[in-house]
Write a structure and sequence with these properties.
The complex is a heterodimer of chains A (218) and B (233). With 218 residues, chain A is an alpha/beta fold. Chain A is built from 5 helices and 15 strands. In chain A, 16% of the residues lie in helices and 28% in strands. The longest helix of chain A has 9 residues. Chain B has 233 residues and is an alpha/beta fold. In chain B, helix 5 runs parallel beside helix 6. Chain B starts with 8 loop residues before the first helix and ends in a 17-residue tail after the last strand. The chains are: A alpha/beta (218), B alpha/beta (233). Chains A and B meet through helix 3, strand 9 and helix 4 of A and helix 4, helix 5 and helix 6 of B.
């Protein structure tokens, strides 16, 4: 069975390492915060000016002056801190944040990513995504393997305007975990019950299959 | 102490004219200068260029200025919550410059810090970098980005004193401190205006030197865009 969005987040959470500062994008990435492995300390950075972001507030205690980058009301944990947008992006550009997880419309086999604009149809803006992908050492994309029309989102070359070039390191989809390597997408894991053949059919970009591909352990 | 207090929003916005370039603080609807925006609507000034991370929602924040067609050009990083904005942009009625959020923040900071331009990696290889100078430093490519030149900056703080010192609350700080530095005239509206001596100098976020006019704001709505909560058990 292909993973649902929650399970994609769960799988990405396995990538978290002790004492990392992590920036989570809107959508599936936000859910990663719910699955931090036991014994691991993580601080979440929200680019609107918050480190040490906590869970949603208890009903009735929400504060209009405390939101995340998705404009959702949140809380701040003990030891957290608040700052302005210039300092927030100094953390990001200065590579003080160890991991960025974000969504995408397309990823290319050379690590290019598109996620901010469909010319003539949808223009919401890039927000902080261009700064994040231009600077983070470690970028994981969380997305469905194909779009609503069933077309692959893992491509030889992005067709939409780019957000960043050659920056994505890993992609976790509903079907597979893949590393972006020199000559394509290296298949690392399959979703439980999903065959290599199905992944191959859903991947337009060059797929590298090296030996037995294990199932994900969720 | 130099006294920066003006008696109301009308006085605070004196000198505002059509065709001017403004900065407006806030992230989403968090920390936006509600009183100054309402006054801009009332003044009916048009052909404005507004530098603001977002464009409000359809009927609040900068959305109010968009509804009245007072804005000629928006310079923002994300405008996803505003249908009227998207309509005006796609139809070509509104000029829009979308720029990476960190670049926007740093351009605001640079404006007030006397730095005309700087190199950032954000947007390299994308359409954001088209027509801009690029340069390699230590094996990585960067894009040259410039400071702004706004006539007014409108910011909103939690507390301020009569000398113009400001303290922000929570994530309502966001773009406000950099924009406060950047305005030729910076107008600060505050939830609570106090006498000098009442704010701890150790806790000041924006020193009064950056603020030309300060006033006691009123009737803050502080709308929440996405009310997300954990149910009470």
């Amino acid at each position: 069975m292909a993973l649902n969005k929650t399970q994609i987040a769960q799988r990405i959470a396995q990538e978290l390492q002790h004492n990392w500062y992590v920036n989570l994008g809107i959508g599936i990435p936000t859910l990663v915060a719910n699955y931090i492995p036991k014994g691991i300390d993580i601080e979440f950075q929200s680019e609107n000016g918050l480190l040490g972001m906590g869970p949603f507030p208890i009903e009735g205690t929400e504060d209009a002056d405390l939101i995340n980058a998705g404009k959702q009301t949140v809380t701040i944990l003990q030891g957290g801190s608040l700052f302005d947008s210039a300092m927030s992006f100094a953390m990001i550009r200065g590579q003080h944040v160890q991991l960025t997880v974000l969504g995408a419309m397309e990823v290319a086999q050379n690590g290019d990513i598109s996620n901010w604009k469909i010319p003539g149809r949808m223009v919401k803006g890039m927000g902080g995504a261009m700064d994040l992908v231009a600077s983070a050492d470690n970028i994981i994309v969380a997305m469905m393997h194909t779009n609503k029309r069933g077309e692959s989102k893992l491509l030889k070359k992005c067709s939409l305007p780019l957000t960043g070039v050659g920056c994505v390191k890993k992609v976790v989809t509903n079907l597979a975990v893949l590393d972006v390597v020199e000559d394509g997408f290296k298949l690392l894991e399959r979703a439980p019950g999903v065959t290599v053949e199905e992944i191959k059919n859903a991947t337009e970009g060059n797929l590298i299959i090296d030996g037995e591909i294990p199932e994900m352990d969720l | 102490m130099i006294n920066k207090v003006v008696k109301n929003v009308e006085e605070a916005l004196q000198g505002v004219e059509s065709g001017m370039e403004f900065m407006l603080g806030g992230f989403g609807l968090c920390g936006i200068p509600e009183n100054s925006i309402a006054q801009l609507v009332k003044l009916e000034v048009t052909d404005l260029t507004c530098i603001s991370n977002n464009a409000g929602v359809d009927n609040f924040g900068l959305g109010q200025l968009l509804q009245k067609r007072q804005i000629k050009k928006m310079i923002s990083s994300y405008v996803g919550e505003n249908d009227e904005f998207e309509r005006q942009m796609l139809s070509g009625e509104l000029e829009v410059d979308l720029i990476p959020q960190g670049t926007l923040a740093e351009r605001c900071r640079a404006t007030g810090a006397g730095i005309p331009a700087f190199f950032t990696p954000a947007g390299y290889g994308t359409e954001v970098a088209e027509g801009k100078e690029t340069r390699e430093f230590n094996g990585k490519m960067y894009v040259l980005e410039h400071a702004f030149n706004p006539e007014f900056a409108f910011v909103k703080a939690w507390k301020g004193d009569t000398a113009g010192n400001l303290i922000f609350k929570g994530t309502a700080r966001n773009f406000n401190p950099m924009m406060a530095m950047a305005g030729k005239i910076t107008v600060a509206e505050v939830e609570e205006l106090v006498e000098v001596g009442e704010l701890d100098p150790n806790q000041i976020h924006t020193p009064g030197i950056f603020v030309q006019r300060i006033f006691q704001g009123k009737d803050y709505e502080k709308r929440i865009e996405q009310r997300t909560v954990t149910p009470k058990v």
